[in-house]
Write a structure and sequence with these properties.
This protein is an alpha/beta fold and 400 residues long. It has 9 helices and 12 strands. The longest helix is centred in the middle third of the chain and has 90 residues, at 122-211.
């Protein structure tokens, strides 16, 4: 337990001397019984309120005993100031027998712990100061417990917020997984049922185009042909979405090499959009175990989306790195496009969610990417600012 300081304030030297004799210079005579006797109270004196305030500024004072009758500032006024500036310091007023009523009013004003009359009873003085020291100890302990409680409340709030975030994140993952599983189960059967009649419509349409010489009819038939091809593309996307990656079809591959091969398929498309693609491969990447065609599908989907996000042209940067902390190989595709609104960031991997407008996208591309990356034991992240572009990062575990 730390040493506690008591301050006596009186403008009369003989009163201060008498107080010191009664209490003892070390304060051992009034130290609480539970206190280790090696840790005695520290006694200081001041001849005026001004001198006492200087002590209070540099010392942590447990108890202050002030005479009522002092020049410049009276004891009651002084203790009221102490209450305002140092509320934990226990205040005791010392007054003459004739001023008891005045002292009682002063006690109420300054919220003094007690008041003592002069001449005092030595035993009463010792007991009062001992009790005051114990009150200060209780106040200090209460303050400590309050601080500890507040700290624990803040820590608990942080833990609760973190837990709520993790629960929400996990719930969203479970919802997403259930959606993917349900749609995947349905997609294969539905896609095959649609594919056959659409193929028949396409074949008959192409036959009619060859057999008719009516220009207007040919134009209508070519619209039907284009829509039939669009249906076939959608069916193919649904089939891709429903397929599950098989680990026995994976191979050891270099991510940089997979990117290089994929760029040949996107170069013509990017030129149509006026988009410049820059590849920045990191040297010395560890190999990854991937289904090569599926990983190229992920990259082509990300690059296609990036081009479509820059209808007026722009830049795409493809980069790779090895995260040694997680031992993952990361592939990033960053564009300078229109970006993604914050309210849509949490939904872009949902099946059938799209912002491309009616007839311009199925909303399955990023869902397929999400499923492929997840099946490879990796993750796909997105960072975006509206008007400043987006960055998609695919992280795949490196081969140990």
């Amino acid at each position: 337990m730390p040493q506690r300081t008591i301050v006596f304030v009186d403008d009369e030297t003989n009163i201060l001397s008498a107080l010191l004799r009664t209490i003892g210079k070390s304060g051992a005579a009034v130290a609480p019984p539970s206190r280790d006797r090696r840790e005695t109270l520290r006694i200081l004196t001041a001849a005026s309120a001004r001198e006492a305030l200087v002590l209070l500024e540099r010392e942590t004072v447990a108890v202050i005993v002030s005479d009522e009758k002092m020049p410049e500032t009276g004891g009651a006024e002084f203790l009221a100031l102490v209450k305002e500036k140092y509320p934990d310091t226990v205040r005791i007023l010392l007054t003459g027998l004739r001023d008891v009523e005045t002292a009682q009013r002063a006690v109420n004003t300054a919220e003094c712990y007690r008041f003592l009359t002069k001449p005092w009873n030595d035993n009463d003085l010792r007991m009062t100061i001992r009790s005051a020291v114990e009150k200060f100890e209780i106040t200090c302990e209460n303050r400590r417990l309050e601080r500890l409680t507040e700290l624990q409340k803040r820590q608990l709030a942080v833990w609760n917020a973190d837990l709520e975030h993790k629960v929400a994140e996990r719930t969203q993952q479970l919802i997403q997984s259930k959606k993917m599983a349900a749609i995947g189960l349905m997609a294969g059967g539905v896609a095959h049922e649609i594919n056959n009649p659409v193929a028949g419509i396409l074949a008959l349409t192409q036959l009619m185009i060859k057999e008719t010489s009516d220009t207007g009819l040919q134009e209508d038939l070519r619209k039907i042909e284009a829509l039939a091809y669009r249906c076939i593309d959608v069916v193919q996307e649904i089939l891709d979405f429903s397929r599950q990656s098989k680990t026995d079809q994976r191979e050891m591959a270099d991510m940089n090499g997979a990117i290089e091969r994929s760029l040949t398929f996107i170069s013509l498309y990017s030129r149509q959009y006026g988009v410049d693609i820059r590849n920045e491969p990191a040297p010395g990447l560890p190999p990854v175990s991937i289904h090569l065609n599926q990983m190229q599908q992920v990259l082509l989907n990300l690059l296609t989306n990036a081009c479509q996000a820059m209808p007026e042209g722009g830049n795409i940067v493809i980069s790779t790195r090895h995260d040694e902390t997680t031992h993952r190989v990361e592939l990033s595709v960053a564009d300078t496009g229109v970006g993604i609104p914050p309210e849509d960031l949490g939904r872009i991997f949902e099946p059938f969610f799209t912002r491309k407008g009616e007839g311009k996208g199925t909303g399955l591309g990023l869902s397929i990417c999400f499923r492929i990356v997840r099946d490879h034991g990796g993750e796909i992240r997105v960072e975006s600012q509206p008007g400043r572009g987006s960055r998609f990062t695919v992280a795949i575990p490196a081969v140990p």
